[in-house]
Structures are given as structure tokens and as C-alpha cells.
Design a protein that fits this description.
Layout lengths: L5 H25 L2 H57 L4 H82 L4 H13 L5 E5 L2 E2 L4 E2 L2 H9 L6 E2 L6 E3 L11
Parallel strand pairs: 1-5
Antiparallel strand pairs: 1-2, 2-3, 4-5
Helix pairs in contact: 1-3, 2-3
């Protein structure tokens, strides 16, 4: 059975308390409310991104369609203007004048039809631009909210990191001078058992595993020398016997 000064064993509980607090802070770092909010915001932004891409693509397509429609109308207008100019000069034959007049009527009908198409595209473009503006506004709001929450997350992390650094400094001071064998055993057990390597023997219970120890195990512990490093038979943790108010070891 390993041995270590009783005072070192009691001080080991202070080290364990610091390590437990460090674990709690590590858990808090991974479970900040801001992290849940960011996950939700990322999901909402991702969902909106598809609508944003679709809306932007539709607006771009309609702008191209409008450019073509405007070009078609302009082409017909130019043709009609040239025909009208030829008629106005009076330099064409009667037969050509008749042909130009017929063509002007045809061009007027064609222009009217193309202007209807142009107007329809303009109306659809306006509707889609309005829809796009709403989607972009919603996206901007989500991005702004995400930036705000990221700031809250970073502030929370900074606070927790400062606490961890302070704990680490306290741990160095607390562990300094402790029995090397005791510390080595503690670190080994702590690694194996998820962070808790030492616990108080509280009456007949191990505060590490919360199990009541059998009478035979308690008898062994009670009969062990004060400097004996005893361990819980249930979980294997170092059991620290803390002095009772009367001066006797607990348990």
C-alpha cells in the first residue's frame, strides 16, 4: 500500500476541487447559450441562402429578358422611323409608298405586341426585385444577429478562459510540494476515471462513486495507518480520510 503524509492527502482534495472546477468550465465553454443560438442562426441562414440564390438568379434572368425585349421594340421603332422618313421625303414611287404604308401598319402592330411583352417583363421584374429585397433584408438581419451572438460567444469564452488560467495558476501553487508518488497516482486515476482521482470518505460512503462501502472494507480503512493511501474498492479512487471535529478520522 502506498503512503503519503496525511496533510498531503488532504491537500490533494484541494487539487481535485480545482480540477473539477476546470472540468466544469470546459463544459461551460462547449455549452454556452450563444453556441446553440449560432447553430440555429447558421441553419436559418443556410435555409435562406437557397431562396436568395434562386431570387437573385430569377432577377438576373428577367433583366436579360427585359434588355432583349427593349432591344426588340427599339429595332421595330427604328425600322418604322426609317420607313416614315422615306415616305415623308416623297422620293419614293407610288408603288413603294403603298408598300411602305403597309409595312408601317405591320410594324405598328408588331411594336404594340412587343411593348406588351416588354411591359409584362417589367412587371414581373419589379415583383421579383421586391421579393429579392425582402429576402436580402431578412438575410442581412440574420447575419447581423449572428455577428452579435458571435461577440457574446467570444466574450463568454474570454471570461471562461481567464477563469481557467487562474485555476491553472492556483493548481501549480496547491500541488507544489505534495508527495510525488501521491500526485502521480492521482493523475493516473483521474485520467482513467473521467477527471476525479480523489474523493472524501464521508461516513461509510465514497463521495467519488457515491457508493456505501461494505463493513469489511471500512474495517480495513479504519485500521490503516494515517499515512496509508487507501482506495475505494468500488471505484478505485483515492479515499481521503478527513479529520472529524473531535480530531478522529472520518469513517
Amino acid at each position: 500500500m502506498a503512503t503519503a503524509p496525511p496533510e498531503d492527502q488532504r491537500r490533494l482534495l484541494e487539487v481535485q476541487a480545482l480540477d473539477t472546477r476546470a472540468q466544469q468550465l470546459a463544459h461551460q465553454r462547449k455549452s454556452l447559450p450563444a453556441l446553440t443560438q449560432l447553430t440555429e442562426l447558421d441553419g436559418r441562414i443556410a435555409d435562406l441562402r437557397a431562396s436568395l440564390v434562386e431570387s437573385r438568379t430569377r432577377v438576373a434572368d428577367l433583366k436579360r429578358e427585359l434588355t432583349k425585349a427593349e432591344g426588340d421594340v427599339e429595332q421595330v421603332r427604328n425600322r418604322a422611323a426609317r420607313d416614315q422618313q422615306r415616305l415623308d421625303t416623297g422620293s419614293v414611287t407610288a408603288k413603294d409608298a403603298v408598300a411602305l404604308t403597309d409595312e408601317l401598319r405591320s410594324l405598328a402592330a408588331r411594336q404594340s405586341a412587343l411593348e406588351e411583352v416588354e411591359l409584362d417583363v417589367m412587371e414581373r421584374l419589379e415583383a421579383h426585385e421586391d421579393a429579392l429585397a425582402k429576402v436580402e433584408s431578412a438575410n442581412d438581419e440574420l447575419v447581423a444577429e449572428k455577428t452579435k451572438v458571435e461577440g457574446e460567444r467570444d466574450a463568454g469564452w474570454a471570461d471562461l478562459d481567464a477563469q481557467v488560467a487562474a485555476l491553472a495558476a492556483s493548481r501549480v501553487t496547491t500541488i507544489d510540494g505534495l508527495d510525488a508518488g501521491l500526485v502521480s497516482l492521482y493523475e493516473k486515476i483521474r485520467t482513467q476515471l473521467g477527471g476525479t482521482g480523489a474523493a472524501v470518505l464521508n461516513g461509510n460512503r465514497c463521495d467519488g462513486c457515491r457508493m456505501d462501502l461494505p463493513p469489511v472494507d471500512l474495517d480495513k480503512i479504519r485500521s490503516a495507518a494515517p499515512d496509508a493511501v487507501v482506495r475505494c474498492e468500488e471505484c478505485g479512487r483515492i479515499l481521503v480520510r478527513v479529520a472529524s471535529p473531535t480530531g478522529a478520522a472520518a469513517g
